[in-house]
C-alpha cells in the first residue's frame, strides 16, 4: 500500500508514477500537484489534485473528460478499458446488463454525446463506495441529459474527482469506516417515512416516533451513552458524562421536509454519536460531558410553530402553539399525546436548559448549497446564519381584454410583480452575502387573452446581518410602493416570518477552523442562508457550525441530497479535533 511519506519524499517522476491511474490518462494533474508537497493528510492530497484541475484550462478539462470511456460503451465491450475503469464498471454490474439495459445505455450514450460533445461521467461506485444499481445509473443518466452544458461539464469534473478519491482510497488501503457507518445509519432511518414513495418524516407521526426510538437504541446499545431519553417535545437526548459537570451541547434535527434527503439535520446527530461511540470504546472521558440532542422539529412542516423543539430548550416555547392545528385539524397537543408525549405546558417548560452548565452549542450540517461542491472542498466554516424576513403579497390591477386595451392604458398586476422580481434580484446581488427571492407566483383566474388583474407572490429576504437584511427589506417595500403608484395599482403585503441573524461565536468558530486545519484542509468561511437549530440555540449559548459538502451540486430538501462516506468521515474527525482543542 502507498503511504504519504512515499509521496512526499519521491522525486517528481516517481510521484507521478505512484499516482498513475488516479486520473484517466492524465499524468499532468499529478505533475502539477507535486509542487504542493508535503501533504499533511490524504484529504489534503485530494484537495490539491482537485485544485489543479479547477485551475486548468477549459481545453485541459475537456481533454480529461473525453479521456474517460462511455459506460458500457464500445471500449468496455472490446475490453479496452484501463484496469481501474474495468474494475469500477464490473462492480456496478455494467458488464452484466440485460439486452434491454445495454440497448438503453447505448441510446443514452449517443444522445448525451450529441448534446454535450463528451462522454457521460459517473462515479459508479457512488457516495457509499459500494456502487449504484444499473437502475440508478440509468435514472441518473436520464436526469443529467437535461442539464445545461456548463453545469454538466462541472458535474463531470466533480464525478471525476470522486472516481479519483475512491481510487486513492484503494491505493492507500483506506476505508472510511466511520463515514460508512454514518451513511448506513442514514439509510436505515430513511426506512421510516410518512409516505411510501419519498422520505417524509413530519412531527409526531408514527414514522417520526419510530426514528426517535431507533436513535435512542443506537445511542444506548451501540454508542455507549450514559443517559438516553426522549423529552416532552420528542427531542432525543443522549449524555456522555465527562469528569466535570460542564457539558458541550450539540446535535441537529431528525424531522424532514416532504420528499426529503437523508442527511439534512440527521448528519448533525450521527457525527457526535460516532464520536461518543469511539470515546466509549476507548474508555475515554473528557474534562466535560457531551450532550447530543436529536431535535424533534425544525422544518415547520406539520404545525405552524418555528423551531418548536429548540424553543423548549431555550425557554421560549409558546403555549399557544399547543392549540395550533395541522392540515387535518389535529391540534399540536393531541398530536403530542398520540405520540406518547405529555402535551402539557409544565412538562415542556421543564426542558429548558441552564446556560451556566454548558460550554456552548455546536452543530454539523450538510451545506444545502453549491459553494463547497463547486470549490471541491469537503468542509466549510459557517460565519453566520442569515437573518430573514418573509412576506406573502398581492398586487391588484384591472383584468381587461388583451387585444383591445392599449399598452399605455393597462393596469397589469403581473407585470408589476415581474418588475419587482428584477429589482429584488439586482438589489440583492449588489451587496455581498445578501439574497432575495420571489419563490411563488400566481395569477388567479389567469387567461391567455386577459391582462392579469391580480398577482399573488411570496418574498424571501435574507442577509448575514440584521442591518443588511433590514436595508434590503426597506428598499424592496419602498420599490413595491413606487412600482404600484406609477402603474396605478394597489397591493397588500403580509409578513409571515422575521428571524434575526445568528453570527457564529468568534471563539467557537476559531476552534472549528483549527480542527479543519489539523486535518490538512484549507479554511473556507461561508454564511448559512438556511435556518438551523443553532439559530435558535444562539439565544441561549455561544454557537458555531461546521458545513459538510453536499453532492449533486449541493442540492438539499430533495431525494438527490447526498454526502460521500469520505466527507462524512472528515466531519467526524473534525469533531474529534474540536473536542481536543476545548
Automatic annotation (TrEMBL):
GO terms for molecular function: 2-oxo-4-hydroxy-4-carboxy-5-ureidoimidazoline decarboxylase activity. Signal peptide: none annotated. Keywords: Hydrolase, Lyase, Manganese, Metal-binding, Purine metabolism. Pfam families: OHCU_decarbox (PF09349), Peptidase_M20 (PF01546). SUPFAM superfamilies: Bacterial exopeptidase dimerisation domain (SSF55031), UraD-Like (SSF158694), Zn-dependent exopeptidases (SSF53187). It is an enzyme of class 4 (lyase). Its EC number is 4.1.1.97. Residues 8-169 form the Oxo-4-hydroxy-4-carboxy-5-ureidoimidazoline decarboxylase domain. Its cofactor is Mn(2+). Homodimer. Belongs to the peptidase M20 family. This is 2-oxo-4-hydroxy-4-carboxy-5-ureidoimidazoline decarboxylase. It comes from Pelomonas dachongensis. The lineage of its organism: Bacteria, Pseudomonadati, Pseudomonadota, Betaproteobacteria, Burkholderiales.
